[in-house]
Amino acid sequence: MRDLHLPLNQTQRVRLEAALHELQTLAPAAASAAAVTVADTIPVNHEDNILKGHGTTDQDGEVVATLCGVVERVNKLVYVRTLRARYKPEVGDIIVGRVIEIAPKRWRLEINFSQDAVLMLSSMNLPDGIQRRRTAVDELNMRSIFEENDVVCAEVRGFQHDGSLHLQARSQKYGKLKRGQLLTVPPYLVKRRKQHFHHLEQYDVDLILGCNGFIWVGEHVVVNEITTFNEDQEKLSAEVETFTPMETRKHICRLANAARVLSALGFTLTIELIIQTAEASLSSNVKINDMLGAEFYVQTAETEAKRRADLLGRKKGGAR
Amino acid sequence: MEHVNPLTGFRVDGRRPNEMRQLRGEVGVVSRADGSALFEMGNTRVIAAVYGPREIQNRSQQVNLKEALVRCEYRMAEFSTGDRRRKPKGDRRSTEISLVIRQTMEASILTHLMPHSQIDIFVQVLQADGGTRSACINAATLALADAGIPMKDIVTSCSAGYLCSTPLLDLNYIEDSAGGPDVTVGILAKMDKVTLLQMDAKLPMDTFETVMELATEGCKAIATYIREVLLENTKQLECQRG
């Protein structure tokens, strides 16, 4: 399995295999039947003139897959949903990225897309919070907002005519992320939801599930919609003095490791599952650094198999 | 030296003339890459890693604005052959094979879907026992499919030779260095089109056809195997995702 080169002992290997097999049997039969690889013919009924979507082409009148993935059918549209691939942006997605370059009036961000994303200075809220034209002075002070290698949270604004991707950060909730960890997971593990920002009050931690598979786990910051410039300055100097408490730092590491384990096992990352895994590690007294060890992987896989079995059982019970 | 036993008809490693070496393919062996694969044909063992589509690093290399740039680097590990020798990076042989692999893969990748980006393919031979060129192409196909890069068809490659007046499939190192003709064929498996054909000796026309036929059959067998590996991997990922 991917990313998982663990020194498993005999019992652990057997247990992991059993858990994974259990997951395979629990998955709906339709899911594995709809799986296709490159150059597989997708069976369609040609009479109801279908629309070919992403990952398909036409070869001698047949619909043929060009990707490995799962066939999805929505009314007349037939497309292939990829599993392991780079991020495919949609307008309005919340993403986390890393600044790699500062160009005139814009920042370039690495977001796991086929190109670098562009964040224009004009689509940013200025730190003074006043709406006005961006001047040359603003342009010179761009490094005071984001520098190279900063981690930034933003929203997908749209595509330009040449195919490049533009971002925006027009709210206080977007912007630079500090005091935390950035994880990268395959984008197919993050589902688009209503809520991508999560404040976990019990841990005093912010968790951002970026649609591009970049996940931020960091100390909670209080979002202040109305901040004046002076206040900001005061906050800065105060910030230098107050460190993140040890307790919070431990929580950040624990949650981050939980997400790492889940992504290595290939489970969809939801906020509930991450919290559950972190709680499970706490209740079974697993140390933070032991969470990435073999035993906890096997445990997590087993718990997940049981959870899905329960879910399926409840569904069936409800149907009856 | 006799490469085919006149009595039994077996080859030096105990295979029949039209028998392939054992295949093994594994997907997802390099964790940092977008797609990666390990491919074995008998004792030949190759690892491939694909990065991209990603932002073009060197704009001067960009030829066509509307298509993705495909780059390929072939390298033999120092420990891959019998004698351990430091191999310079840009020697003629590896440059040529890099080019061959790049052109073969480019024929199948739908580059027009990924404008302003580049795809890097790195293949490294871990163990060389003849047919590294074919093994590299097969590994690259697996890795590209793993990276979720759209392709027209699965490209596979296999070699065949002609020794002791017998057409032989999938030559190993001993047979390869015997001095007979070595035909490497790469095909688009489903469309049944040839994308690569190399031969470094002369062969009479009718013999060439039988040898090429044999190599094509080998390619198709490899294609079936590769699709099995990919389908198995896709199903597993989907089931675990839940």
TrEMBL record, chain A:
It comes from the Eukaryota. GO terms for molecular function: RNA binding. The lineage of its organism: Eukaryota, Viridiplantae, Streptophyta, Embryophyta, Tracheophyta. One of its GO terms (biological process) is CUT catabolic process. It is found in: Nucleus. Residues 90-170 form the S1 motif domain. Keywords: Exosome, Nucleus, RNA-binding, rRNA processing. Pfam families: KH_6, S1_RRP4. It comes from Lolium multiflorum. Its main location: nucleus. Belongs to the RRP4 family. This is S1 motif domain-containing protein. GO terms for cellular component: cytoplasmic exosome (RNase complex); nuclear exosome (RNase complex). InterPro entries: Exosome_RNA_bind1/RRP40/RRP4 (IPR026699), KH_dom_type_1 (IPR004088), KH_dom_type_1_sf (IPR036612), NA-bd_OB-fold (IPR012340), S1_domain (IPR003029), S1_RRP4 (IPR048565).
TrEMBL record, chain B:
It holds the Pfam family RNase_PH. GO terms for biological process: nuclear mRNA surveillance; poly(A)-dependent snoRNA 3'-end processing; rRNA catabolic process; U4 snRNA 3'-end processing. GO terms for cellular component: cytoplasmic exosome (RNase complex); nuclear exosome (RNase complex); nucleolus. GO terms for molecular function: RNA binding. InterPro entries: ExoRNase_PH_dom1 (IPR001247), ExoRNase_PH_dom2 (IPR015847), ExoRNase_PH_dom2_sf (IPR036345), PNPase/RNase_PH_dom_sf (IPR027408), Ribosomal_Su5_D2-typ_SF (IPR020568), RNase_PH (IPR050080). Keywords: Cytoplasm, Exosome. Belongs to the RNase PH family. This is Exosome complex component RRP41 homolog.
